[in-house]
Amino acid sequence: MWRATAGVLASHWRRHPGQTATLLLGLALATALWTGVQAINAEARASYDRAADVVTQNGRPVIRDPSGADIPLEIYVALRRAGWPVAPVVEGRADIAGRDVTLIGIDPLSAPVLPAAEPTEGSATPETDTEGLIAFIGPPGRLMAAPETAARLRGALSQDVLNTPDIAPGTAIGDIGIVSQLLGLQNVITRMIVVADPPAHAPPLAQLAPGLEQLAPEAGADMAGLTGSFHLNLTAFGLLSFTVGLFIVHGAIGLAFEQRRGMFRTIRALGVPARTLGVLVAIELAIIATLAGAVGVGLGYVIAAALLPDVAATLRGLYGAPASGALALRPSWVAAGFAMAWLGTGIAAAQALWRMARLPLLESAQPRAWALASSASQTRQALAGLGILCVGAFAGWLADGLVAGFTALGGLLLGAALGLPWVLARGLAFAERRARAPLTEWFWADTRQQLPGLSLALMALMLALAANIGVSTMVGSFRGTFTGWLDQRLAAEIYLDAGTEDRADEIRTWLDPQVDAILPQVWTEAELGGEPATLRGLPNHATYRDNWPLLTPASGVWNALERGEGILINEQFARRTGTSTGDVVRLDDWTAPVLAVYSDYGNPGAEAAVGLRLFSQLHPNVPQVRFAVRLPVADAPKMVEALQNEFALGADQMRDQAALKALSLEIFERTFAVTGALNVLTLGVAAVAMLTSLLTLATQRLPQVAPIWAMGLGRTQIARLELLRSALLALGTAVCAIPVGLALAWVLLAVVNVAAFGWRLPMQVFPSDWVGLTALALLAALAAAALPARRLGRRPPADLLKVFANDR
Amino acid sequence: MILTIDGVRKSFTGPEGSVRVLDGLHLDLAAGETLALTGESGSGKSTLLTLVAGLDAPDEGRIMVSGQQVNALDDSARAALRRTTVGLVFQQFNLIPSLNVAANLAFQARLAGRLDMPWLEEVTGRLGLSDLGNRYPEQLSGGQQQRVAIGRTLAARPALILADEPTGNLDEAAADRVLDLMLELSRDSGAALLMVTHSKRLAGRLDRRVHLSRGRVA
Residue A97 in contact with residue A149, Cβ under 8 Å? Predict the structure, then answer.
């Protein structure tokens, strides 16, 4: 019995390869979207952990100065003499061959973990550990870096640079002596790694080095903090994809049951118990989910591999975090992909199996469940949606933080999706009431009857469109604000770095008679309100008065700043600590009133600004070697050339404003290239869902279409009406998606973004994008409807006659 | 007795309230016997068949099939009864569209675990279906589909065949030919036949005829 029944179930899929393909495709695409996002996240996180492993020596505790200042070498010596098993580390950033590289110096004799390098090129025999150690210590010394970084460093440095896959891109590791030299450090180290527990008799750290602190290991903590917000956005998009995917899987599985409703009834009537049938269908679905999951994971890998270089570039550029551009097959995201396929199928199948178990054996064998879905159940569903919307709205308005943000997002999307069929049905009923011609009246009534069968696909389409509008509104708002911010923060025509103070004096003297203003660019580390921060010194000049992006502009701010009567703070610090204009905040040893708050895109840390004069008094040792130069815009290119000729300033030492802005915008655009690509994919998946539904419905449309055909409507005309129906439903869905998308953008900008990044952007709307998206949705719907409509248009009259012959 | 129906009552609730379809019905059918059940529309003929097959349960009374009280069995046992003892021929054929004719014919016998190839070939041949084995139901005429439905039941050699207007979709000549075959094959397989029909002419060709009226034997 089991075998015969299993054979019958399988025969359906063999006999209907189109249905099999659409089911597998729906499941696979939903899995692929989710897997792709998970793969990107997993890969980027693995990169940080890999770097952190070498830097923190496999998660050992670290000793450092709480203010982040360098540690004198004698303290390290004192700790070693007292029996503390510590290893010194120096770390800093250097511009090598025009690229910013993080250099880490370690002591190979005391550090327990050394990165493993690939064999030296051209060597006939592998070198021994001793030979390797001697080459590492030098001279000239040896650096280890990821292959792409190593290729860049070779030739620019006198040291050998070995390929070491374990090191994250953008980072190089070498002997502490060599790296100190490259970073220009003398007799100082950045931190110490406690490679083993200190002996019991060793004096405590507080006695040996009172100013230092020992920190518990936290792999990749710094970078995780910086990049968390980026991943959060990706994860948010992943969840959107997941939701869209669930609707698609639900629709696909639902259709798979509806298509076989008659068969289930027959084999039950012939003596197959409900339980046997249920078990076999569950096994069948598990196999299908596994097959589709495998395809989906493969597709997800392709998506991730295509997008990862952009993600890696974004993370490196925007946050300075190392991320590999290569993709490895990781169990975590492979498992996440299969979980999506199984979970989605499980959720969808649970309802379908429940319906199947309760399938009345005596009812008509014709598939009809959706077509007769009552308006009462539609209203119940809409009410449930309203309830979920309210929960989301409460979370968005009343609560703070990421959990509230995601609750609001989930509530908004699910609630709106559940309410969509009710809204569309009301619209169709209205149109039906207004119709005068009999054909028009039939068209609206027939569309309303089709609605339950298309509901899931339309919900998926609405979610995809809403996600698209939401994310593009967010991106547009970012772009608008960011370009404005760039215009303000990079107002000067030329920015240059003289390198040394002597050279700076020389350049300043040369420049002075030729330009409108030379504005020193100075900053240093400071403690703001008890947390590490950057302190800037701002010259008293119209460039700042006119352009600095103050969020709370007030008269007299700049004069007060110049007089040293207060400070400016960045938005991130203001939001995090709840500080606002007029409050008093502690800056190092000074209690300063806050004169204003300014926006500071892309900076995860706290920052403050004081007048240049006060800055020089507070930090007399900070050299003024960087300048912003003001001159007529048209003169800038010639001046850049003259500076290069006169002082041999390299490209890394001098950039004109246009180049800087272009670079910054490029990084910014890349940040959102990933979400943009995923947007298009999600819309594509929704179109496939619609195609699946329409194809299946088309097979059940004959009883509705045949009488109209018999009454004199041509097959081609009926096919055109089918196309029109799909386009109108997609249009209605797009109209509903616009407010949902805007609400989604508001949650992303006002709740999720504030919680993740620490600043809020003004929301801008882009109606032209909505028009474009609506057109895209119409195209997707028409494309999805084209095949079923074509089939209907070419249906042989004999098929239509069968409807009457068989008395369906 | 292969079938005993004792005091069966069945009502349905419709828009106009409860309607009694069967009202204390008594009926017996011996092994190998053929019985025609006639009556006007709504007299309870098809309902009786669904109750005997265990597709629905009576409100009162007792239905015994091959010594088992159908309405006292659970779902699995009723399914087993349909699989092994009872054969159903539906008015709308209810063939499995994804199986070809040969697979459809063998399906119930395989479910019952008693596929007898020589007997299946004989049934297929006598029903005139030998050349149609590779066709699918949608490629058959109504008469051909009806013959496949009958063959599917007979191939499983059930002790009791329940047929609900098996020739309802056929013209008189075709109906006569199909009934001839059904009677011949059920006799050869030793099965009892309970057939619902509107046709007095066809009913007259069975061993016995029972007329139902208002849920009772008239």
Answer: no
